[in-house]
Design a protein that fits this description.
Structural class: alpha/beta
Low-confidence stretches: none
Distance between the termini: 77 Å
Helix content: 25-40%
Number of helices: 17
Strand order of the largest sheet: 15-16-17-14-13-19-20
CATH architecture of the largest domain: 3-Layer(aba) Sandwich
CATH topology of the largest domain: Aldehyde Dehydrogenase, Chain A, domain 1
Bound molecules: NADPH dihydro-nicotinamide-adenine-dinucleotide phosphate
Length: 494
């Protein structure tokens, strides 16, 4: 049997094993079999990585680098990424089971994140303040925070890294990245491009391993100034507690139970395709999954015919095949959790219209059929809790006010979709829905220019867009006394 590939971590510009030399297996969800080994980091490795990042932050190779030069480096990284899309997409698919066609499309677009932030490099500026004191010249400038820790989940390992890495670096910070134990390989492959681009040692460090083992030492480390986290609510609570140790600033991009609302005046075909994109794209393992579908009662039956006839034809298969439309879910745990939710849905009286089980033709791997439940009421577990799998809950509504209430009656506040040809209604609802992202007549669109993030249990802080760069900086105010007159009374405030 062919030996499994072995990945080391990357600390201070060097590839390194963990302090105790341990590796863990990473599994291919399409086969359920291990396909590589990854270094199992320890608290000592965290210490090495954070110290390397801290040293690099003060090292003149990085600290004195002009913003323009940092922009060139980031642009170069974007170019290198463009040249390596095919290979990186294959690593992502092997590691997390997402469709190769999705990963290729996503990674083909990803260089834009580097170009966008590279373009902002020389626009990170302060202001001259029209100060109300004679003889004082006062200005502000934006300076980097220091060491940033980025912690990412398994569903879009590179995208969710880039949206942190690019603004953090362009602002002049250094970074330690901890990818998910289930999907570390694509980031480690990408790290070879970081090396090639020519970032000074210690500016970017990767520590792999189990969050449960090394998460606390990473997020409570006194040298860490900011933690950018994407993942689950339980981990986020732990990080918030740890931030009491170091007062690190936080951004928390967590889960959702996002509504997709279809009105009777909508283009029903587009709305059905948007619904499918929202919940069955990425096998439902998306923070913005449109897992609750609210249908206006007038178009309920017509819409369901369109939706169901397309969902029945969805091709479940090997994510490496170009024609597969649904691949496996990322872990066996995840698969079992989805099965439990389906049982709960049935116990709660939901009507199972489609799916609800593992597909018979996929004997190996962690596959689950696209599943649709119909509900008459919005009060069960599966209509309220994030499932993170291909399970859609459908509910009817008749009034605008009613659906706004229903859509907002969740603990989450990440995303929402509205399907209507009434432009006024699109605006009205986008204001009233409690969500950080609202899509009108589209779903799952992303751009480096448009911030993402949520409220309530979906977390806080935004990633992407101009403000994201500012979030990786802090303002410094500089006062210059232009007068040569003797200082007045030193015992009163000036
Ligand atoms: P987890 O919170 O379990 O894991 C996310 C990351 O946190 C992983 O790297 C994990 O490492 C790490 N981690 C685990 N425990 C700790 C700890 N104690 N301290 C620090 N880090 C730790 O989430 P999942 O991997 O299960 O990801 C799914 C969740 O992420 C869903 O709830 C989903 O909604 C959310 N998500 C949100 C997105 C958004 O943009 N809002 C996008 C994508 C996902 P390890 O893997 O080793 O456990």
């Amino acid at each position: 049997m062919e030996a499994l590939k072995k990945y080391d971590m990357y600390i201070n510009g060097e590839w390194t094993a963990s302090s105790d030399g341990q590796y863990f297996e990473s599994f291919n969800p399409a086969t359920g079999q291990p396909w590589c080994y990854v270094a199992q980091g320890t608290s000592e490795d965290v210490e090495r990585a954070v110290k390397a990042a801290d040293n690099a932050f003060y090292n003149k190779d990085w600290a004195d680098m002009t913003y323009t030069k940092r922009g060139h480096l980031l642009r170069k990284l974007g170019d290198l990424l463009s040249e390596n899309v095919e290979e990186l997409a294959e690593f992502e698919t092997r590691d997390n089971g997402k469709l190769i066609r999705e990963m290729k499309a996503q990674l083909t677009y990803m260089p834009e994140f580097f170009y966008y932030y590279a373009g902002l490099a020389d626009k990170i500026q302060g202001e001259t303040l029209p100060i109300d004191k004679k003889d004082m010249f006062v200005f502000s400038e934006r300076e980097p925070l220091g060491v940033v820790v980025a912690i990412t989940p398994w569903n879009s390992p590179l995208y969710l890294t880039f949206i942190k890495l690019a603004p953090a670096l362009i602002a002049g910070n250094t970074i330690v990245i901890k990818p998910s134990e289930h999907s570390s390989a694509s980031l480690l492959e990408f790290t070879k491009l970081i090396e090639k681009a020519g970032f000074p040692p210690g500016v970017v460090n990767i520590v792999t391993g189990f969050g449960a083992d090394i998460g606390d030492s990473l997020t409570s480390h006194p040298f860490v100034s900011r933690v950018a986290f994407t993942g689950g609510e339980k981990t986020a609570r732990n990080i918030v507690r740890n931030s009491a140790e170091n007062f690190a600033q936080l951004s928390l991009e967590l889960g959702g139970k996002s509504p997709n609302i279809v009105f009777d005046d909508a283009n029903l075909y587009n709305a059905a395709m948007g619904t499918i994109a929202g919940i069955f794209g990425a096998t439902g393992q998306s923070c913005v999954a449109g897992s609750r579908l609210f249908l206006h009662q007038k178009i309920y039956d017509e819409f369901m015919d369109i939706l169901v006839s397309r969902v029945e034809k969805i091709k479940i298969g090997d994510p490496m095949s170009a024609d597969s439309e649904i691949g496996p879910v990322a872990t066996l745990n995840q698969l079992e959790s989805i099965e439990r939710y389906v049982e709960t849905g049935l116990d709660e009286g939901g009507k199972l219209l489609l799916g609800g089980k593992r597909p018979e033709h996929m004997k190996e791997g962690w596959y689950f059929e696209p599943t649709i439940f119909e509900h008459t009421e919005h009060n069960g577990c599966i209509t309220k809790e994030e499932i993170f799998g291909p399970v859609l809950s459908v509910m009817p509504f008749s009034e605008e006010e009613e659906v706004i209430k229903l859509a907002n009656s969740t603990d989450y506040g990440l995303a929402a979709g509205i399907w209507t040809n009434d432009i006024g209604r699109g605006h009205r609802l986008s204001k009233r829905l409690r969500a950080g992202i609202v899509w009108v007549n589209t779903y799952r669109s992303i751009s480096p220019i448009a911030p993402i993030g949520g409220s309530k249990l979906s977390g806080y802080g935004r990633e992407g867009g101009l403000e994201s760069v500012h979030d990786y900086t802090q303002k410094k105010t500089v006062w210059i006394n232009t007068s040569s007159a003797p200082m007045s009374d030193p015992f009163i405030i000036r």
